[in-house]
Amino acid sequence: MKPVLKLALEKNTALVDEAMEALLRPKPDLPRSVRRSMRYSLFAGGKRLRPTLVLAAARCCGLEARKALKTAAALEMIHTYSLIHDDLPAMDDDDLRRGKPTNHKVFGEAMAILAGDGLLTKAFESAALNARELALDGRTTAELIGVIARGAGAEGMVGGQVEDLAAEGLGKKRSRGSSARALESVHRRKTGALIVASLDAGAVLAGANAAQRAALRSYGRRIGLAFQITDDVLDVVGDKKKMGKRGSDRDNDKLTYAALYGVEDARSKARALIRQAHGCLKDFGARASVLHELADYIIERDK
């Protein structure tokens, strides 16, 4: 990991974690049991990629990163809720997440579902608080909430998860062309939609113009797909201990880029997407340094 990105991730993680601690402080009406479950997964590690995208996009468009912290926290809470629910027996049925027992293994399925629900709804409260702090007008506030909801919802991340579940075991029954289209559709939404929403939310907070928002969304679509392709490759060649997981997509007969194209061709596709992503940032100059380094990191990581 390059120095600028390493420093940014460390700084952003500390700031976002502080913001999330404040958002989840004990309250009389917040049951201790669900708070414990929410915090267990929220503070279980992770790179804080989506919050960093919010903060970096805001900075690219002229807003001090600290002023976007509550929205950055919102995107991390949505991401965490999705992981809790993805791990459930009815979904991916995983026992480990980041090397630790998954939420439902510690707190039970019912509490895991409720913790995910709590994080999702707390996220929108956090984004609304951010809009109020910045004195955004009603139209801009509605756009901020809409951007996040579309990225997280049935036309975004949730829809991608639905297609991913439906595609299990079908890879061998489709033509390569049909499989490729289905795979890109899944990952454009399951992984990419929330990445794009993170960038767009940061831009909205900063009052970005249409061209700036379009450039950041284009960058996000490319790194989102490259991120998932790299995940597919690591599932084949990665160190399961480093990745903090057990089992593999191959075990679950999932349609993946590595299975469809082979490891080397999949890596080549990811590299091409990252080259395109760099091009999307040309008009932001030095303000986009973190986003440039993040793009490179996505295909260089080993977990």
Question: Can you give a write-up of this model?
Answer:
Helix 3 packs parallel to helix 10, helix 8 packs antiparallel against helix 9 and helix 10 runs antiparallel to helix 11. The chain is mainly alpha-helical. A hairpin with a 2-residue loop joins strand 1 and strand 2. The chain contains 15 helices and two strands.
Query: How many H/I helices?
Result: 15
**Strand order in the largest sheet:** 1-2
- The termini sit apart by 12 Å
**Total strand count, please?**
2
**Describe the biggest sheet?**
2 strands, antiparallel
**CATH fold field value:** Farnesyl Diphosphate Synthase
| Superfamily (CATH H level) name | Farnesyl Diphosphate Synthase
Mean pLDDT: 91
Anisotropy-based shape: globular
Unreliably modeled segments: none
Radius of gyration: 19 Å
Helix and strand pattern: HHHHEEHHHHHHHHHHH
Please give the CATH architecture.
Orthogonal Bundle
Task: Name the features.
two-stranded antiparallel ribbon, mainly alpha, Farnesyl Diphosphate Synthase, 71% helix, 1% strand, 303 residues, single chain, globular
Fold topology:
Blueprint: H1 3-23, H2 32-42, H3 49-60, H4 69-86, E1 96-97, E2 100-101, H5 103-107, H6 109-133, H7 138-152, H8 157-167, H9 176-190, H10 192-205, H11 210-237, H12 240-243, H13 257-261, H14 263-280, H15 289-300
Antiparallel strand pairs: 1-2
